[in-house]
Design a protein that fits this description.
The complex is a heterodimer.
Chain A lengths: L3 E2 L10 H13 L9 H21 L6 E4 L2 H15 L4 E4 L5 H12 L5 E4 L10 H9 L4 E4 L13 H10 L3 E4 L19 E5 L10 E5 L14 H4 L7 H16 L1 H22 L4 E3 L11 E5 L9 H7 L2 E2 L15 H5 L8 E5 L6 H17 L4
Parallel strand pairs in A: 1-11, 3-4, 3-5, 5-6, 6-7
Antiparallel strand pairs in A: 2-8, 7-8, 9-10, 10-12
Helix pairs in contact in A: 1-8, 2-8, 3-4, 5-6, 9-12
Chain B lengths: L4 E2 L10 H7 L16 H21 L6 E4 L2 H15 L6 E5 L4 H12 L3 E5 L9 H7 L4 E5 L13 H10 L3 E5 L18 E5 L10 E5 L28 H37 L4 E3 L10 E6 L4 H7 L3 E2 L15 H5 L4 H5 L1 E5 L6 H21 L1 H7 L13
Parallel strand pairs in B: 1-11, 3-4, 3-5, 5-6, 6-7
Antiparallel strand pairs in B: 2-8, 7-8, 9-10, 10-12
The chains are: A alpha/beta, B alpha/beta.
Chain lengths: 382, 403
């Protein structure tokens, strides 16, 4: 059966060049990078070369890049260790953050590691209320701010420069969950005032099980995982060498081809959006959809009320269309998307997140449009 | 360039081509997110994970639900120790471990001491085994956890795990073991051994780096740990983060291969190890470290007195070995494990760890013997200490002048 994969915000297929690099490492470079013999040293070189590649692309220094097991670990390290290192008692986030941020902060509040957790107001499209952010910072002692760059379900972008400026004004520590945008936009840390940004390689055609945390050199944090001198004493555990090499290659490719993919994928997104507007009466979108306000890989569609609305994704899957109702990380639950609840989306309108990649084609979208039309028609309210 | 002979399999092992083969489809067509519930890409990935969980469970004699995948043994050690400390803090704050544990356990315990834990670090006997009477004497009503490794990474000694778990349980404490070096090498059965939590990793058993697991007992008693990384609630809420599907599939395959081949491998490797060890031990002033009866089949740790370990390693560049754990080998400190056995700094400094593995051949061992003998003899020829020793001067009685 034909399958169209439009769930690239959950994970992306690997780039063939990334697989080739990783396979080479797995077959030929197996040493432990901490071993001092030749077979260890050559592998250490691979890890440090990857770190140099990553830091170079971000305008960072290699000493600011720490490899982790993925985005969740990177977010947890930034939040838990950033807060504890500076004795911070107040944090600000939003109601539509990824669970790696939201649950972590809530857990810290519950455990008394912070005294207060504030939620910045967001509008019905997922935009941060910057004036409210400033107000929250004004009225509190030194604060840890965690706001994602692009929302993983809606695609709505937050202005990182603006948030960084505000945080600087109030001496706050700023963590941006950049999991969805790393490799999709140029992140130059010298232009940003973020103290922490993060990456999960599998969101940019790299492998699962590896990511990194950028820590601005002015910030010093303790490790989250203890037990070895790896990552300059910041992260114990034998390095996932093939994964780290794969991550660096994936980011390298992403930066090299970024403009081309941005244009290509943005066109696809516009194409699908326009076609759905033309073909399906009553269609709407969750979150921002304009090119300058939203992540070009995500389109969250709000369908008109229909029969068996909760079967919509199932029906799409039967027709070979792989999309998602929200984040994969919480898609097993039935409580609905906390993000859609957070923007007070109409719960009677079924929502589907379509997310694209450089491998998505216009032909695939034509197929999707045809099938979506059919499913909507079959389930139209009497 | 000619590859050196690899005898550092305690640091990491080469990936078995059969493991790589199992992983590859999960890099290509089966690339889905195992948590995607709405489409086939997710289900296929989840199936791969489920199958791996069965393979892992079968190796250690547990149920699938008791396996929590992590990024490796270090993360698993951290999760077990911190997770138990936080979950059982109402019961007590005392943890017992040993001085010869891996840094992943020791550094985690040291970190917890800053957060109110009381930690007892048991010494070991000259042969590297812990003293059960000392363990029992250290148990208190506040003891919540005993964490003793299964097989030591530097000297290979196997601790009396059954006896240790029995003592822990008699005093109402949980028993956790870092079994990174033992799982896949010798039979480990969590029920027979009375293990409540157990950490291990794939790359020590011919699987990929960046993946491991924590066994968490679910019955008699039901053990709980506080998660150390929050997020999507993966792994039954104990460890969030998108599952490393290819890595997990690789770990599963590695476990299956070890289960099927362990018995014959142990016989083969211990014969090769014994040949290496007995030959090298015939050299003058060489000493085998650690208990040789209760020991992993693939490990030998030998001190060559009057030879400096780092220098010896450099002189044996055709041999990839280690003078301690890889995780601490960047430092020039002598091995804290060997020092715990009562070795002097000098002798600890002059030790070499030989770790054999699945791809070690008899030819490798013959070469390794030859290379070691040659290097040791050569370095001793250059050593004034060796010369003095040969002249019958008792070096321990000399008063060295201060410089």
């Amino acid at each position: 059966m034909k399958r169209v994969y439009l769930d690239n915000a959950a994970t992306t297929p690997l780039d063939k060049d990334v697989i080739a690099e990783m396979t080479n490492v797995m077959e030929n470079y197996f040493g432990n990078p901490s071993a001092i013999h030749a077979l260890g040293r050559e592998v250490r070189t691979l890890v440090e070369k990857a770190r140099k590649t990553v830091s170079g692309l971000l305008g960072a220094s290699p000493s600011e890049i720490f490899f982790t097991s993925g985005g969740t670990e990177a977010d947890n390290t930034a939040i838990r260790c950033g807060i504890s290192a500076y004795g911070i008692k107040h944090a600000i986030t939003s109601k539509i953050e990824h669970h790696a941020v939201e649950h972590t902060l809530n857990m810290m509040l519950k455990n008394g590691e912070i005294d207060k957790l504030s939620f910045v107001n967001i509008d019905e499209k997922g935009n941060v209320d910057y004036a409210h952010l400033e107000e929250l910072l004004q009225n509190n002692e030194r604060t840890f701010v965690s706001l994602m760059h692009a929302n993983n379900e809606l695609g709505t972008l937050t202005d990182m420069v603006k948030v960084g400026d505000i945080c600087e004004k109030y001496n706050a520590i700023y963590h941006a969950d950049t999991v969805q945008t790393m490799g999709h936009y140029v992140h130059n840390v010298r232009d940003l005032k973020a103290h922490f940004i993060v990456c999960a390689a599998h969101k940019l055609h790299g492998p699962k099980g590896v990511g990194f945390l950028y820590v601005n050199s002015n910030i010093k944090i303790p490790p989250m995982i203890y037990g070895g001198a790896q990552e300059r004493n910041m992260r114990g555990g034998t390095e996932n060498v093939y994964g780290i090499v794969g991550l660096a290659k994936a980011l390298e490719i992403a930066y090299a081809e970024m403009e081309q993919h941005q244009n290509y994928i943005q066109d696809l997104k516009n194409y699908l959006k326009e076609a759905l507007i033309a073909e399906i009466p009553g269609i709407a979108f969750n979150g921002e959809t304009d090119a300058d306000k939203s992540l070009y890989t995500v389109l969250n569609v709000s369908f008109p009320e229909m029969d068996m609305a909760d079967m919509l994704l199932f029906n799409l899957d039967i027709n070979g269309i792989c999309a998602s109702g929200g984040s994969a990380c919480s898609s097993g639950s039935n409580i609905g998307s906390h993000v859609l609840n957070g923007i007070k989306a109409d719960p009677n309108r079924p929502s589907v997140r379509f997310s694209f990649s450089k491998y998505t084609t216009k032909e695939e979208l034509d197929y999707v449009i045809e099938k979506v039309k059919m499913v909507v028609k079959q389930n139209a309210l009497a | 360039m000619k590859q050196p002979i690899y005898l550092d399999n305690n640091a990491t092992t080469p990936l078995d081509p059969r493991v790589l083969e199992a992983m590859l489809p999960y890099f290509t067509e089966k690339f889905g997110n195992a948590a995607s519930r709405n489409h086939a890409f997710g289900w296929v990935a989840e199936e791969g994970v489920d199958y791996a969980r069965e393979q892992v469970a079968k190796l250690i004699g547990c149920t699938e639900k008791e396996v929590i995948f992590t990024s490796g043994a270090t993360e698993a050690d951290n999760l077990a120790i911190k997770g138990v400390f936080e979950m059982y803090k109402d019961k007590g704050n005392h943890i017992i471990t040993a001085l010869t544990e891996h840094k992943a356990v020791l550094d985690t315990c040291k970190h917890l001491e800053k957060n109110g834990a009381r930690v007892t670090y048991l010494g070991v006997k000259e042969d590297g085994l812990i003293d059960l009477a000392a363990l029992e004497a250290a148990m208190t009503p506040e003891t919540i956890l005993v964490s003793i490794m299964y097989g030591n990474n530097e000297i290979g000694v196997i601790q009396p795990v059954k006896e240790i778990s029995a003592i822990a349980h008699r005093y109402g404490a949980l028993f956790m073991t870092d079994a990174t070096q033992a799982v896949g090498k010798i039979p480990v059965d969590v029920n027979a051994d009375g293990i409540d939590l157990m950490a291990f990793s794939a790359h020590k058993m011919y699987g990929p780096k960046g993946v491991g697991a924590l066994y968490v007992r679910r019955k008699n008693p039901r053990v709980k740990v506080t998660s150390q990384m929050d997020g999507g609630g993966h792994e039954r809420g104990m460890r969030s983060g998108t599952l490393n599907v290819p890595g997990i599939v690789g770990l599963g395959k590695a476990c299956e291969l070890c289960r099927l081949e362990m018995e014959s491998e142990a016989v083969r490797l211990s014969a090769l190890r014994d040949k290496l060890e007995s030959t090298l031990n015939k050299m003058e002033e060489s000493y085998v470290n650690g208990n040789t009866q209760h020991r992993l089949p693939h490990v030998a740790n030998i001190s060559f007195k009057y030879v400096e370990g780092e220098g010896l390693m450099m002189a044996m560049s055709d041999l990839a070995v280690s003078s301690g754990s890889a995780c601490t080998s960047a430092s020039l400190e002598p091995s804290y494990v060997l020092k715990s056995l009562g070795l002097s700094d000098d002798l600890a400094h002059s030790s070499i760890r030989y770790g054999l593995g699945r791809f070690t051949t008899e030819e490798d061992i013959d070469h390794a013997i030859e290379i070691t003998q040659k290097a040791v003899n050569h370095l001793r020829e250059l050593s004034p200490l060796w010369e003095m020793f040969k002249e019958g001067i008792d070096l321990s009685k000399i008063e060295w002048a201060e410089h």
